[in-house]
Amino acid sequence: MSYGVEHATVRFGGVTALDDVTVSVPQGRVTAVVGGDGAGKSTLLRALVGEVVLDGGLVTAPPAARIGYLPASAGSWLDLSVQENLEFVGLSFGLDRASLAARAEELLRRAGLASARARLSRHLSGGMRRKLGFCLAMLAEPSLLVLDEPSTGVDPVSRVDLWRLVSDAAARGTAVLMSTSYLDEAERCASIVVLHEGEVLLAGTPDEALGSLDGVVLTVDRPVHSERAWRRGRTFREWWPTGETPTSGMPAQLTLEDVVIASSIARQLQDATP
Fold first, then answer.
1. What pLDDT, in 10s, does the model give residues 9-65?
2. CATH number of the structural domain 2-205
3. Residue 245 carries which DSSP code?
4. Please, what is the average pLDDT of the chain?
5. Are 237 and 215 in contact (CB under 8 A)?
6. Widest CA span of the chain, in angstroms?
7. In what order do the strands lie in the sheet with 229-232?
8. CB neighbours (10 Å) of residue 165?
9. Which H or E run includes 46?
């Protein structure tokens, strides 16, 4: 079973937030959505969970009771304790008390929050609050789990914990779609979708994305074309499209970050061409 959107278009007034976007989210796999601010990541996720209505296209998703969603906000109620958050969400999903208690205990243990069950959400660290939000999203054992930048702004240890929880969810058969600003996280996913100004820039497995770049990326001390270069440590990376002969530099060991940046530059230059 696979969920997702087909040819999704969303407009807010005169602004097109998504333009003919297709994303597949298979069960048992983690799909990452990557893109800069305004790329359409949150709009895509909100469309999939039913918070945004498409102007065109199709959404394939399970019933709302089978969807777990962690928004970009904390995902919990600050004036409720960890335990109260779990009870409130669990009862709203219709879980009986016994099932709720067992499920909450399992999730708190896996998230490392068992000792914090009496603490108010507002008194948790940022990482602990995001892990609580994840537990709330997973409480009803959803078929589809949608996570909006779950690890942004959290400490490195909590980021590792969150990724372990996401991987465990997929291993149990959940279809997971997550947006992320960390390309090293995207590289661990089964597939990635890179959005640029509401359009799909790249899509496929990480290996397919790495092999999709038109042209070459070189490591240079001083770029020839500054508009096609970006800094990497003490040197620069410079993209040369197919058909142009590089005048200096050595072939770079490509990373997903290089491919995303170079592809974004190529699209911007293409859009700027009369």
1. 999 999 999 999 999 999 999 999 999 888 999 999 999 999 999 999 999 999 999
2. 3.40.50.300
3. P
4. 93
5. no
6. 70
7. 229-232, 235-240, 216-220, 250-251
8. 22
9. helix 41-48
38: three-class secondary structure by DSSP = coil
C-beta separation of 232 from 239 below 8 A: no
Cα–Cα dist 223/115, whole Å:
54
Which candidate, 205, 201, 241, 204, places its Cα nearest to that of 224? 241
Question: In Å, how far from its chain's centre is CA 85?
Answer: 24
Sequence spans of domains, the chain:
2-205, 207-272
Q: What is the pTM of this model?
A: 0.92
Question: What single DSSP character describes residue 244?
Answer: P
**β-pair type (56-60, 175-179):** unpaired
**Residue 247, exposed/middle/buried by CB under 10 A (0-12, 13-18, 19+)?**
exposed
The torsion angles phi and psi of 193, rounded to 5 degrees, stand at -130, 125
At residue 241, does pLDDT exceed 80?
A: yes
Q: State pLDDT tens for residues 193-233.
A: 999 999 999 999 999 999 999 999 999 999 999 999 999 99
Reported residue count of the chain is 274
User: Which of the four pLDDT bands, split at 50, 70 and 90, describes residue 75?
Assistant: confident
Cα–Cα dist 69/148, whole Å:
8
Distance between CA atoms of residues 265 and 259, nearest Å: 10
